[in-house]
Specification:
With about 475 residues, this protein is of the alpha/beta class. It has a domain of about 240 residues: Amidase signature (AS) enzymes, CATH 3.90.1300.10. About 40% of the residues lie in helices and about 15% in strands. The chain has an eleven-stranded mixed sheet, with helices on both faces. The mean pLDDT is about 95. The chain binds glutamine.
Length: about 475
C-alpha cells in the first residue's frame, strides 16, 4: 500500500475523528519502505520506535492534547542530530557515531508530535548534487531507478516521492533541497539564511547551510517552517524577526506580480531543451494571467559557481577538521601514533569528494593564496548579493529552472567534478545571497522524468514566496 496524501490538512480531520490513526499511517509507510529497499533511501529506519511514538500520538489525539504535527510522519536527512540515534552524514568516518543531543529542529518537530520514521541517505557531508557521493551508495529515483535522485538530500526527496513518509527534512547549502525536489517532482523549500536554527545540523559550509523541507504541498512546507523557524540561543546567526503564522496565512496570492527570469536559462546551450520549454510555458502562463514577466541578464552569472565552491570548500575544510580520529567516529586500526591517527583516520574515513574539497578548501585559505581566492570570493559574494537584492527591488520574484536538466543516469557524470559543480548554476545564487527559494514541480519531460522550476524572493519574504507558490502550482 502506498499512501500519498498531498497535504497534512487532508489527514488531520481523519486523525482527529479517529478514522485514520497515526499507527496505521506509520504501518503503511513502513510497508512502502520495505517494498522498496532497493532504492537505498534510508540509512536507518526507526521502525519500532516510530510505531511506539504513533501509539502515543493516537492517545494524545483522543485526549485532545496532540500538537500541530500530530501524526505527521517525517524522515530526516542523516546529517541532523537526534539524541541517542546514530548520525553518519553518509560517511564512513561517522558510521557508528551516536548523537548525544538533538538538533533544535528535531526538538521542535517532536514537541509538536511529529513522528520520525528514519534517517535518510545523502551525499557524504552533504557534498554533491546527485547523491552519488554517499558512503552507502546512490539513492535511486522512484520515477526511473536507473537515474539519480538528485542531491545532496536525495534520500529525503525519494522518501517523499515514493510515499515512504509524509514529509522530509533536508539541508540546503547550495541547492541540496531544491535540486533533488526538482528531480523527484516534489516541493523543495529553502528559507532565508538565519530563519531556521542550524544547531545540531552537521556543518558543511556554515555561512550557507540552511534547513529545508521536501513535501508534496506548499501548505506542508509552510506548516513545517512555522514549527522549525525562529530564535534559538544555540545559533547566533539566527534572525530575531518574529515568525509569522505561515500555516494559517498561506493562501494562493491574487495580486499581479513583477517577475524576472534569467535570459540565459533560455539562450544557453547548457540548458536542456525540455527544461527551457517548461520555463517558457510558465512564462507564457504568467503573462497570460496579467503578471509582468521580463528577461534579465545577471552580470555575475559565470561567477556564481566558482564563488560558491571556493567559499563552501574553505568553510568545509575548517568544519571538517574536527574529524581527526580522536574526537569523533572512525579511528584507523593501522595508526601507531598521534600523527598517523590523524592521517590514516582521515584518509580512510573520508570519501574522494570530501577529501578533494578539504584539500581545495585548505589551498584557498593558505597564506600565499588567501587573497587571490578566499578574500576575492568574499568580495564577489558581496557583489552577487547586492546585485541580486537590487533586482529584487524591481521585481517580486526571480524565476529560473531549478537544474539545467532532469535526473540523469546513475554514474553518468560522477567522474568529472567540474561538470557536477556546474549543475548548481541556478541554485547557488539564493545561497550566496542568503535568500529564500523554492523548487516547484513543473510537469515531466518526454521520458516521464519530473522537471522543477525555482522561485527566489527577498530575504525573509517567505510568506510572499509561499503564497505565490500556491498560486503558481495552480497555473
Ligand atoms: N551541490 C552543492 C555542493 O555540492 C550543494 C550541496 C548542498 O546544498 N548541500 O556543494
Amino acid at each position: 500500500m502506498s499512501i500519498n496524501y498531498s497535504s497534512y490538512n487532508e489527514i488531520k480531520s481523519g486523525l482527529q475523528s479517529g478514522e485514520v490513526t497515526a499507527e496505521s499511517l506509520v504501518k503503511g509507510y513502513l510497508q512502502q519502505i520495505k517494498a522498496n529497499t532497493r532504492l537505498n533511501v534510508f540509512n536507518e529506519v526507526f521502525e519500532q520506535e516510530a510505531l511506539n511514538s504513533a501509539k502515543g500520538v493516537d492517545v494524545k489525539l483522543k485526549q485532545g492534547t496532540a500538537g500541530k504535527l500530530a501524526g505527521m510522519v517525517i524522515a530526516i536527512k542523516d546529517n541532523i542530530c537526534y539524541k541517542d540515534h546514530k548520525v553518519s552524514a553518509s560517511s564512513k568516518i561517522l558510521e557508528n557515531f551516536t548523537s548525544i543531543y538533538s538538533a533544535t529542529i528535531v526538538e521542535r518537530l517532536l514537541a509538536e508530535d511529529a513522528i520520525i520514521i528514519g534517517r535518510c541517505n545523502c551525499d557524504e557531508f552533504a557534498m554533491g548534487a546527485a547523491n552519488e557521493n554517499s558512503y552507502f551508495g546512490p539513492v535511486k529515483n522512484y520515477a526511473d531507478e536507473t537515474r539519480v535522485s538528485g542531491g545532496s538530500s536525495g534520500g529525503s526527496a525519494v522518501a517523499v516521492q515514493a510515499g515512504m513518509c509524509h514529509a522530509a527534512i533536508g539541508t540546503d547549502t547550495g541547492g541540496s533541497v531544491r535540486q533533488p525536489a526538482a528531480f523527484c517532482g516534489i516541493v523543495g523549500f529553502k528559507p532565508s539564511y538565519g530563519r531556521i536554527s542550524r544547531h545540531g545540523i552537521i556543518s558543511y559550509a556554515s555561512s550557507f547551510d540552511q534547513v529545508g523541507t521536501l513535501t508534496n504541498s506548499v501548505a506542508d512546507a509552510a506548516l513545517l517552517l512555522e514549527v522549525m523557524a525562529g530564535h534559538d540561543e544555540f545559533d547566533s546567526t539566527l534572525s530575531r524577526k518574529p515568525v509569522p503564522r505561515y500555516s494559517e496565512e498561506t493562501t494562493p496570492s491574487s495580486g499581479k506580480m513583477k517577475i524576472a527570469y534569467l535570459q540565459e536559462a533560455i539562450s544557453s546551450p547548457g540548458v536542456d531543451a525540455e527544461v527551457k520549454n517548461a520555463l517558457i510555458t510558465y512564462i507564457d502562463k504568467l503573462r497570460a494571467d496579467g503578471h509582468t514577466v521580463k528577461p534579465i541578464s545577471f552580470e555575475y552569472l559565470e561567477y556564481l559557481v566558482p564563488t560558491y565552491y571556493i567559499l563552501a570548500m574553505a568553510e568545509a575544510s575548517s568544519n571538517l577538521a574536527r574529524y581527526d580520529g580522536v574526537h569523533y567516529g572512525y579511528r584507523s586500526p593501522n595508526a601507531t601514533d598521534l600523527v598517523s591517527t590523524y592521517k590514516l583516520s582521515r584518509s580512510e574515513g573520508f570519501g574522494t569528494e570530501v577529501k578533494r574539497r578539504i584539500m581545495l578548501g585548505t589551498f584557498v585559505l593558505s597564506a600565499g593564496y588567501y587573497d587571490a581566492y578566499y578574500a576575492k570570493a568574499q568580495k564577489v559574494r558581496r557583489l552577487i548579493r547586492n546585485k541580486t537584492n537590487a533586482i529584487l527591488e524591481d521585481f517580486d520574484f526571480i524565476l529560473t529552472p531549478t537544474a539545467p536538466e532532469a535526473a540523469f543516469s546513475i554514474g553518468k557524470i560522477e567522474k568529472d567534478p567540474v561538470v557536477n559543480y556546474l549543475h548548481d548554476i541556478f541554485t547557488v545564487q539564493a545561497s550566496l545571497a542568503g535568500l529564500p527559494a523554492i523548487s516547484l514541480p513543473a510537469g515531466n519531460n518526454n521520458k516521464g522524468l519530473p522537471l522543477g522550476l525555482q522561485l527566489l524572493s527577498k530575504a525573509f519574504s517567505e510568506q510572499e514566496l509561499l503564497n505565490f507558490s500556491e498560486y503558481f502550482l495552480k497555473l
